[in-house]
Amino acid sequence: MAVLWGGRFTKETDDKVFAFNESLSFDKRLYAVDIKGSKCHAKMLGKQGIITEEEAESIIKGLDSILADIENNTLEFDPKCEDIHSFIEANLTKRIGEPGKKLHTGRSRNDQVALDMRIYTKNEVIALSDLITSLLKVLLSKMKDNKDTYMPAFTHLQKAQPTNLAHYIGAYVEMFLRDRDRLKDIEERMDYSPLGAGALCGTTYPLDRDYTAELLGFKEATYNSMDSVSDRDYLIETLSACSIIMMHLSRFCEELIIWNSNEYRFIEMDDAFSTGSSIMPQKKNPDIAELVRGKTGRVYGALVSLLTTMKGLPLAYNKDMQEDKEVAFDALDTVKDSLTLFTGMIDTVSFNKEIMAKSAMKGFTNATDAADYLVRKGIPFRDAHGIIGILVLKCIEKDCSIEDLSLTELKEICDSFDEDVYDAISLKTCVERRLTKGAPGAIDESIKRYEDII
To answer: What predicted TM-score, i.e. pTM, was given to this entire model?
Structure first.
């Protein structure tokens, strides 16, 4: 068993203990960032004269060869190694001899682990941001194509007022823009390198921590060595942001699932993003949307798991923190896959524009506009509200829409109705007259804003 701490012990670790303790089976995905951190550490050790420049160069070349061999599959991960750090150090020493044993000078696995996870998470945050940008571009394209696609907007899952599909999609654009901003905030807050913090109280070697921070692409080094090795706030924030992203995706998926139903028929899912039934040949199921909705709980679980792990830990490092990796890796993979598949699904979905418009017309979504029409005729809004309520009851009895009533029938309820009421309560007018900032009639302003920031 390849471990980094054998000197103090007089016998081998029990096999079951080793299996319970090891992390190589899942932290092996950190190999590239671990090597990156080690190369920068070696370069700094050479610069500071802690090891010779020749030794530093030998270490860096050895690490480069390990990286190349892992990536071309000529070097397999050894299950006898405790973690990715011991695996790489063991292979380095095997390749270059004594200089390899000097790599860990002035460094602990505690700050090494903290660094690896921070670099990895930072890269993942950037990747998530890029995926959200790709989704936003698709949604913006859908908005541009559907400014005149009229549909009902809902409250309490009941038809409320008419809008256009561009306005509806724009609500999700706002959500995903906030998600991207959150990720940017997290990236800025985590832009500090813990390398050189040692086990918890730094080191007596003259390390240049800001130099390694610069080499690694961080703004600067962390300010407290104990916090450096015990901080997982950046990961909790990332999982929180991931949970909110998944919540937004899940809400959108719920809409698409409902719209895809036979009762609504607002959309048609592309065959590439649907599946069939093993027994019912007529079925075309929105499985991708349902899976994204389902996997949301999985990502929530990762956040709660890490919060629970961290809630009772004293300073500084504790082995409990090893539990951050599997849940984080799974959650990040899940969110990236969900964003990728959702983007493809929404990009290929077809909207049944005629059915959407008919649905808006049949749901009394223009009732508020009919009341506003009477207000413009001089009737107080509260009275107009009551008049239209009576009108809706009449329509329900006749199984028709407000615009289906004749002018004579309208005047029986209120003399203020004139021929111009039909234009005033048409879908086009109802949508286009809503010109306040952020409303569907001002959709061109919203689109222009999105073009500038997406």
So the answer is: 0.93
The residue annotated as part of the active site, out of 156, 401, 406, 446, is 156
Rounded Cα gap, residues 199 and 329, in angstroms:
24
Angstrom distance (rounded) from CA 359 to CA 356? 5
Helix residue spans in 217-366 (DSSP H): 225-230, 233-259, 287-310, 324-348, 353-361
Active-site residue flag, 104: no
Residue 128 burial (C-beta neighbours within 10 Å; 0-12, 13-18, 19+): buried
Q: Which own/partner pairs from 396-403 qualify as long-range (CB within 8 Å, at least 24 positions apart)? A: 401/361, 401/362, 401/364, 402/364, 402/366, 402/367, 402/370, 403/361, 403/366
Calculate the alpha carbon distances from 315 to 42, 96, 189, 318, 387 in Å: 28, 37, 21, 8, 68
The reply to whether 406 belongs to the active site is: no
Q: Which residues contact 259 (CB under 8 A, 6 or more apart)?
A: 265, 266, 267
Question: Of 25, 141, 261, 277, which one is the catalytic site residue?
Answer: 277
CATH 1.10.260.30 assigned to domain 110-357? The reply is: no
Q: What is the mean pLDDT of residues 379-405?
A: 93
Taking each helix axis as running N to C, give the angle between helix 233-259 and helix 165-189, from 0 to 180 degrees, rounded to the nearest 10: 170
Residue 320 tokens, joined: 């409990």
Homologous superfamily (CATH) of 363-453 is: Fumarase/aspartase (C-terminal domain) (1.10.40.30)
The single residue listed with the structure tokens 């959709």 is 443
Residue of 354, 379, 367 lying closest to 403 (CA atoms) = 367
pLDDT band at 363 (very low <50, low <70, confident <90, very high): confident
3-state secondary structure (DSSP) of residue 337: helix
What is the residue extent of each domain of the chain?
A: 6-101, 110-357, 363-453
Average pLDDT (133-139) is: 98
Mean pLDDT of all residues in 266-287: 81
**6-101 homologous superfamily:** Fumarase/aspartase (N-terminal domain) (1.10.275.10)
Whether residue 454 contacts residue 137, with contact meaning beta carbons closer than 8 Å, is answered with yes
Q: Which residues of 346-384 are buried (b: 16+ CB within 10 A; e: fewer)?
A: bbebebbeeebbbbbbebbbbbbbbbbbbbeeebeeeeb
| Omega cis (within 30) before 316 | yes
pLDDT score recorded for residue 10 = 54
User: What ranges make up the beta strands (E) of 93-247?
Assistant: 150-155, 158-164, 192-193, 220-221
In percent, the amount of the chain with pLDDT more than 70 equals 96
